[in-house]
From TrEMBL:
InterPro entries (alphabetical): CHAD_dom, CHAD_dom_sf
Domain CHAD residue range list: 1-285
Pfam families named among the record's database cross-references: CHAD
Protein name according to UniProt: CHAD domain-containing protein
Organism: Prauserella flavalba
Domain of life, per lineage: Bacteria
Amino acid sequence: MPADVAVATALHGFARVIAVNVNGVLDDIDTEFLHDLRVAVRRTRSLLKLAGDMLPPPLVARYAPGFKWLGDVTTPTRDLDVYLLEFDALAAMLVAGEPDDLAPFGELLQSEREKARRTLARALRSQRFTRLIEGWQAALTEIIERERSEEELSAESLAGQRVRRMVKKVVRRARSITPESPAEAVHDLRKRCKELRYLLEVVKPVCDQAAHRAVIKDLKKVQDILGAFQDGEVQSHSLRDYAERLQAGSTRPPAATLLAMGELSARFVEMQLRARHDLTEALDRFLGPATHERIEALLP
């Protein structure tokens, strides 16, 4: 398959996933509809960044900003969904406090989630969204169906080029991480690992399948630790923000609520510190010869 057809085919598939999940999001049937929609948006943006040069530049310039907008407009609702899905687990983490102490916090999250969902629904019902998805799918279909020449770069060649390039980028950033590295550097590594993961998913059909599974497994171990580090920092900061908003509301929260939220914030800081400690060992393994051999084995 020509490289541009492969890229367009993958992007068309992501667009289809976005489209089929819209009604489930609008009807608020299950939080997984929004999750699947957002994953497809992230995959779209990552593939445009890593292989968008295979497509006509005016096409990418026209549609890439729309997918950034779609990612931004879906973020608040998803973040609140995650909080509410994990709320009982958060309450169970309390030692000094009681689960009922968090009730005012839960009510705030529900209220904020409803506001965010209404904003999201307006966006998904807008002409901007409709034009984005329908126009994008039509443009990609034209690329997929156009006539080919034998001299074009193949999907297999593109996969080898781009995976090697992305691996070098991830390895370079991973080797720069030390226990003293700022949080921003760790977050940047997490983003690059996610991009590599999405790229590997796209090129899977032209890879050695056993080696592909092994590389994904190695990468997932690093991603899990990077995710714990990210969650620790984000959650500890957001809990402070929510506590301030509760205090600023018309009804002052009980002292027990603020104390319980402070206890949770401290737990997340501990989680971030543990992840920072585990990261050094995980990166040493990931940067070792075994992972390098697996990556070379999976490539065409």
